[in-house]
Amino acid sequence: MNRTIKEATVKRFHYDDHAQLKKHLADFIDAYNFGRRLKTLKGLTPYEFICKQWTLEPDRFIIDPIHQMPGLNT
To answer: Taking every annotated instance into account, which residue ranges of this chain make up the domain Integrase catalytic (predicted)?
Structure first.
């Protein structure tokens, strides 16, 4: 994991200050965790698992999870 983070952030970009590095690192970690497939969820990402559960049991959810996707909604 540490090597993955280094290769995707520090070794690929130049940062003017520490705050810029922190922001980019936080964005990378969020995207990485959002898109990571987990064995405990039978190979699904957390978002895919939530969407699957929503289709099986929509009454457990207050709002549609498809509208809660992080990032730009274009």
So the answer is: 6-49
